[in-house]
Amino acid sequence: MEDSLIGPILLFPVALAVLCLLLGRASRAGLAVAAGGWLYVALLAVQLIPFVLGVGGRLPLLPGLALEKLGACFLLLTAVVVACALSHAHAFFSSERQSASSPSDRQVLLFYVFALVFLLSMSAVYICDNLGLLWVSIEATTLTSAGLVYFRRDKHAIEATWKYLIICSVGLAFALLGTIFLFSASQHGLADGGSLNISDLIQQAPGLEPTLMKLGFIFCLAGYGTKAGVFPLHSWLPDAHSEAPAPASAMLSGSLLNCALFALWRLLQIASGVPGSHFCQEMTLWAGIVTVVAASLFLVRQHGLKRLWAYSSIENVGLMLVALGLGSAPLFLLQAVNHSVAKVSLFLLSGNIIQLAGTKQLSELRGLWSAAPGWAALFALSALAVTGVPPFGSFISEWLILVSSFESRHWLAAVLLLLGLSLAFIAVCLHAGKVLTGSPRSEIEPARTCSRSVVPAALVLVSVVLGLVIGPDFLRAAL
Amino acid sequence: MSYPELFAIASAVMAILMIGSGRLRINLLFYAFQTVFASAVTASCGLVSGDHQLYSIGLAILLVKAIGVSAFIAWITKRIGVTSDPGTLIPVPLSMHASIVFLVVAHLLASQLPHLKGQDHSLGGATAAISLLLTGTLFMLARKVAVSQIIGFLTMENGIYLFALTQTRGMPMMVELGILLDVLVVVMIAGLIIFRIKRSFEHIDVTLLTELKEY
């Protein structure tokens, strides 16, 4: 039976982390982690793809743990993102160590270990079938990724880590309160003493006490929303993404944000069965719209390269919230996949560019085209992919989100969304254009670009393929 | 008024006394008292309902949160050599008055919540829980020093715990332990970062951590 194998596979990152510690040297561990990451992806794919394409809807693993199709897709996406980031990390850290602020061997080794434990905690989110365990897993992702943000150990990194830890912990405290409200709602409504089990709650949703259910959902939206970077609660996100080393930023943006949004999806699954709780969907939708508009306004005046992409991630979180608010799991997944692919490529490339230029200030980054044409081309393509330009996959998902918000007669929301997306496109193009053109501020010696271009180039290719392959079918179905 | 309610309200009062002092040692002492009362609520709930699991959870809270965490934070403050917190815009006496008002507000809110059948200590418990939550939030907002932020967070967490205890019948043990462990790890990591903040910035005033800004 296949269900007996997924559990052990999920523990594979832990084995890899132990192997890293045993190897003891960052250069050797880096290669092992890169190979191990892709082996993990392959093992997961062999197990999960038949399940996702098959007829069975739900795969119970252990008490309180079960896998659904959407969760399986996200599990695979998370593994791919982490494998990409880690296989780039080896080249990234070897060139980082030639620069002035070189991290020590131990720092890099610890980075790999934290990244692998982080992968485990994120995987746990997708197999939870219990609201309490879901909360514990999300909190665990905060704790393990704090180690990644803390990597450089300088003033900025300490400040970013402190804010990340405190803001997310307080936010998640509210999500815990929301979870307790939901438990209480199930005890008021159900005869058999209540439950935190998600699949039970979905089945018995009509029996939940509506007031407590709504209160619980509001607290959870605020709590998990903090973790996802929903607009007024996003302040930790640009700091953490900007101060973490590039592979960690890629993992935070490409996989961590999806975890929090997936938790909200599970809650919406429960809420959609409660009579008169249409307002939960509406609230999620509007939280998404507000986030998209606010993030695109922030995008206009940015001064740091990685902060720019951090705000672009917030914008995409807004889009995914809109997809959740529209009640469409496929749209949520599609947008998440496209965003992760393009954003991981962008963060990894930005790391390279920052290494090359020695600064992350947008005002000082100029003339990438003449300094490193290969990276410049990939950078331009990734930036276009992230804003949703036609040949790329994210165009399809953003288009479909817009169409369905018009179809569901959310006129104002759709118009605001359109304005936000256009503004974000213009802002990103302006900033990226300035980085690409002009002449470099200082003489930059041509870098050995090959090993650090492989992963971004592959991701750009995937983004195009996603757009070309799934595009026509989806469009035909939508039109 | 039943024993669980009495202990819960006592816990909320300890939080109000805690916010009334600007000295970290006194804050910490009242945090410990507040947590001791929270563990007393747990034990007395166990006595009322006859659920013996609650005794062991109460004991775990007493040992881990009331004694262990308090001792850890006391050790940090001693090592760093910070004794008091000047507070932000909201002065210390005013924040205590505000938290007394919060207790009343909490009572009004708690009486709006639907009551669980067969849970007679629900109203007092909910009042204390919401009051602790609000007081903890205010404590985090009104104080400058990083150590105070952790104490405020722990107070919020106590409020959430009391809410779970008095508004539901028995959270699953696994979940309860997971939460306790997570809180413990947050405090440990935050404590270690405080040492780093002290070493790099030569202060632990979190309102001055503003190097990462937009403009």
Tell me about this structure.
- The complex is a heterodimer of chains A (479) and B (215).
- Chain A is an all-alpha fold.
- In chain A, 77% of the residues lie in helices and 2% in strands.
- Chain A has helices spanning 3-10, 12-23, 26-53, 69-96, 105-127, 131-149, 155-189, 198-203, 210-228, 236-243, 246-271, 278-300, 305-325, 329-357, 368-371, 373-387, 393-407, 411-436, 454-478; strands spanning 58-62, 65-68.
- Chain A has a two-stranded antiparallel ribbon with strand order 1-2.
- In chain A, a hairpin with a 2-residue loop joins strand 1 (58-62) and strand 2.
- The model of chain A has no long low-confidence stretch (mean pLDDT 87).
- Chain B has one domain.
- Chain B is globular and about 50 Å long.
Question: Would you spell out the secondary-structure blueprint of this structure?
Answer:
The complex is a heterodimer of chains A (479) and B (215).
Chain A: H1 3-10, H2 12-23, H3 26-53, E1 58-62, E2 65-68, H4 69-96, H5 105-127, H6 131-149, H7 155-189, H8 198-203, H9 210-228, H10 236-243, H11 246-271, H12 278-300, H13 305-325, H14 329-357, H15 368-371, H16 373-387, H17 393-407, H18 411-436, H19 454-478
Antiparallel strand pairs in A: 1-2
Helix pairs in contact in A: 1-3, 2-3, 2-5, 3-4, 3-5, 4-5, 4-11, 4-14, 5-6, 5-11, 6-7, 6-11, 7-9, 7-10, 9-11, 10-11, 10-13, 11-13, 11-14, 12-13, 12-18, 13-14, 13-18, 14-16, 14-17, 14-19, 16-18, 16-19, 17-18, 17-19
Chain B: H1 3-19, H2 24-49, H3 53-80, H4 92-112, H5 122-142, H6 146-167, H7 173-201
Helix pairs in contact in B: 1-2, 1-4, 1-5, 2-3, 2-6, 3-7, 4-5, 5-6, 6-7
Q: Which spans of chain B of ≥5 residues are poorly predicted at pLDDT below 50?
A: none
Number of domains of chain B: 1
Number of strands of chain B: 0
Share of residues in helices of chain B: over 70%
**H/E element string of chain B?**
HHHHHHH
Largest sheet of chain A: 2 strands, antiparallel
Largest interface: A-B, 48 and 40 residues
Report the oligomer.
heterodimer
